[in-house]
Amino acid sequence: MNWMMKLYSMKNSLLIILASVLFIACKDNKKEVVESRVEALPYYSEATFTPKWFSANSDSLKNFHTIPSFKLVDQEGDTITNETFTNKIYVTDFFFTTCPGICLKMTKSMHVLQEAFQNDNEIKLLSHSVTPDIDSASVLKKYATERGINSSQWHLVTGDRSEIYNLGRKSYFVEEDLGFNKSDDEFLHTENFILVDKNRHIRGIYNGLNKTAMQQLIADIKTLKKE
Questions:
Q1: Helix (H) or strand (E) holding 223
Q2: Of 76-85, 130-139, 167-176, where does mean pLDDT reach its minimum?
Q3: pLDDT at 148 > cutoff 60
Q4: More reliable by pLDDT, 10 or 160
Q5: Is 213 left (phi over 0), alpha (psi -120 to 50) or beta?
């Protein structure tokens, strides 16, 4: 009888240890959000994404690269321009609704950002369709509804193809870090997310397929909010 009691006691002890290990592991998993690598984020002005460092009120920023004016239409049929993002920080990417590959993973990554900042009106998301001839506002609306996209925070936009492609390649440099240039008629396809501050400056580029990169992006957005 004595040996049965000891066996029972050992079994309980092992269960307690296992539960403790699992609790610590789960706790650690919730600490995925890393801190920004720097106290202030750099600025970017061209396709090599060479970081430039300025204070927020530096005169050098007066003529520094900014995202130019644009006019597009979102899933609600609303006109989306630079003014939509006045006093907002936003993350942008390029996708298309019929994409069977990386776009679905990118959408999931954008969802991570939507959830992280769902109660923060200062943070917006902007996804451009690279097949605007197919992705009308109604098609984008269906895509948004099926994927739980909050239209007040996350704009899926369509419009003139040349405008969207110029924005992607010449303004956000979203594809150029690949190390080669494409002609205007070639398809724009990239997993990169771009972080833009309230003054339309580019402040970061991130791999939208990488979970760690998304956690870094969340941390960098929080750093940018402090400026």
A1: helix 211-225
A2: 167-176
A3: yes
A4: 160
A5: alpha
Residue 162 has pLDDT above 80, yes or no: yes
- Determine the Cα–Cα distance for residues 72 and 70; give it in Å rounded to an integer: 7
* CATH at residue 196: 3.40.30.10
Residue-level pLDDT at 56: 82
Looking up tokens 């924005």 gives 167
Q: Which amino acid is located at 14 in the chain?
A: L
Residue with tokens 């991570």: 112
Claim to verify: residue 73 and residue 141 sit in the same structural domain: yes
User: Which residues span the domain enclosing 11?
Assistant: 1-31
Domain count, the chain: 2
Q: Are residues 95 and 156 in the same domain?
A: yes
**How many beta carbons lie within 10 A of that of residue 133, not counting itself?**
8
Token pair 């939507």 is found at 114
Same domain, 129 and 194: yes
